[in-house]
Amino acid sequence: MLWLYEIPLWALGLLVVGIFVVVSVLGLLLTRPLVRWLGPPENDFANYFISGIGVFYALLIGLIAVAVWERYSSVEAVITSEGVAIAQMYRDLEGYPSPEREVLRAKLRSYVIHVLDTDWPAQQRGVKPKTSPQVNEIVKYLVRFEPKTTGQTVIHAECVRQLNALLAYRRERIGSIEGALPTVMWFVVLAGSAVAIALTYLFSSLNRRLHLTLTAALSCMIGLVIFLIITLDRPLVGTVSVGDDGFRDLLTRIMKVEASSKPEPTNTGALSIEAGEKVRHLGG
Predict the structure, then answer these.
(1) Which pLDDT score, from 0 to 100, does residue 260 have?
(2) What is the pTM of this model?
(3) pLDDT tens for residues 246-271?
(4) Which residues contact residue 252 at a Cβ distance below 8 angstroms, ignoring those fewer than 6 apart?
(5) Rounded to an integer, what distance in angstroms lies between the CA atom of residue 149 and that of residue 278?
(6) What is the pLDDT of residues 143-159, one digit of tens each?
(7) E-assigned strands of the chain?
(8) Residues 115, 247: contact at Cβ < 8 Å?
(9) How crowded is the C-beta side of 238, counted as CA atoms within 13 Å?
């Protein structure tokens, strides 16, 4: 389903909702002869069953939508934590002697640039980024460093701890690229929507326009919720993905790299206000 995330957001919304509305209206018109063949109208009797099934489906699709949003928020928190770990490590390197301080800070800056220029475009296409050479260089450099004072020992231990946190958050971020609802769950969602809409065909009304309008409204609402699930199902893919603003803010405010030297963001998403404030707080 990655091709869906290459479609502009407005076009994707129109496509999903339009398919539901058109199919439901055509289904209503085509099933009128069958409903009349089944016998005289029994709207009150059918309403009991339709209401019960509608409640169950509403609970199902509502819980799925909440779960998808929670996963989106958790991925956003992971990316924020990765940025915070980089910021803390960059500040802690102040306690290192020269030239180790300058070398390690340069490698951290290079890593952030690599994330912005290489990782993010790949993520938005649904492709896992390759191993970052900058991270491997930082690991090797820290392992070889030998503290000469008690203060350097404390600072070194803290930098190693932040590096481990950075590596863990990076692995979580990359692992989230392919995370999505399983196929069987999508089958249940779509099959349930088909049943919920089809049951409205069993009602009989002398006002055909009203019947068509109500059926279209129901299918439109279901289509909107499924559109929401699709857009949030892959937090790092497509236009409605978690943004890289936190990393860019880290690069310009803490690492003092001019934003003009970097390309403009290609992502319309943004980290949460709380996430941004964490990195800004660390930046002074």
Answers:
(1) 38
(2) 0.78
(3) 899 888 888 876 443 443 333 433 33
(4) 258, 259
(5) 31
(6) 888 888 898 899 999 99
(7) none
(8) yes
(9) 20
| Domain range enclosing 166 | 2-282
Overall size of the chain counted in residues: 284
- Residue pair 83/246 in contact by the 8 Å Cβ criterion: yes
Q: Torsions phi, psi of 51, nearest 5?
A: -65, -45
Q: How confident is the model at residue 51 (pLDDT cuts 50, 70, 90)?
A: confident
Decide if 237 contacts 177 (C-beta within 8 A): yes
For residue 5, give the DSSP letter.
G
Structure tokens at 198: 């089809």
> Between vectors from CA 68 to CA 247 and to CA 11, what angle results, nearest 5°?
80
The residues, ordered by sequence, that sit 6+ positions from 243 with a Cβ below 8 Å of its Cβ are 265, 267, 268, 269, 270, 271
Q: How many domains does the chain have?
A: 1
Q: Which of 156, 177, 161 is nearest to 84 (CA)?
A: 161
Rounded Cα gap, residues 148 and 131, in angstroms: 32
Q: What is the 3-state secondary structure (H, E, C) of 165-187?
A: HHHHHHHHHHHCCCCCCCHHHHH
Report the alpha-carbon distance of residue 201 to residue 161 in Å, rounded: 62
- CA angle 212/213/217 to nearest 5° reads 120
CA distance 101 to 90: 9
With a cut of 90, say whether residue 22 has pLDDT above it.
yes
232 in Cβ contact with 5 (< 8 Å): no
Give the C-alpha separation, 80 to 222, whole Å: 33
